[in-house]
Amino acid sequence: MKRFKNKIVVITGAGSGIGRSTALRLDSEGADLLMIDKNKKDLEATKKMLKNKNSSAHVLDISSISSTENFFKDLEKNYKRLDALINIAGILRFDNSHEVELENWNQILDINLTGTFFMCRHALPLLLKSKGAIVNVSSTAALGAHAWTAAYSASKGGISAFSKTLAVEYGMKGLNINCVCPASIETPMSSNPMMPKDIDTRLLKKIMPLDGVNRSPDDIASTIAFLASDDAIHINGIDLRVDGGLLT
Length: 248
Hints:
The chain is an alpha/beta fold and 248 residues long. The protein has a single domain, classed as 3-Layer(aba) Sandwich (Rossmann fold), CATH 3.40.50. Helix content is 40%, strand content 14%. Helix 2 links the parallel strand 2 and strand 3.
């Protein structure tokens, strides 16, 4: 299956976790990838795993409007087109909501939400030409209550609402914009989290899937690949839960 042959795809957060798995999945389907991450070592490790040697790695802070703008200027100059944008980069921390520091709140919002906005903002002119797709990684934290994630939940709720706005605004112009809402996925971001002291452990049950099994990032990558492909041509403006029934 080569759904992305001769297609140019940008992926943020490609250095690890869901981003790396998505890069490998799209690489296997023939995509020419422009992979973005802040961690150069992890990003280069992902690049070495790819079959397509035309794909490239870019160390970039997506929370910088000038950096993202320059990235897309270079993309347009060198590639002339863009077929899909996949926003996966994000950070997570757990705090009692009344103890969240402003510095941490701003950092999470800047990377998760504002970074997604910057990437979409600069990609849209190119995607309108190709009638392409955007897949933004939101979270079940945008759809249900997850304790201790005030900033993270706010950022992911913002991503879901923002994505629906784009879907309505640009859908009649040929674009598809959707969100994937994962939960209980084994990634570096979610492994060994630092929890607040003296938490009510009963609330931990609200972040476990029905079968009690955490899944691989590959299970999210396959969903992202579907939504970014022409197979999802009639799907627009949704939050697609991939959570093992967590919110059911």
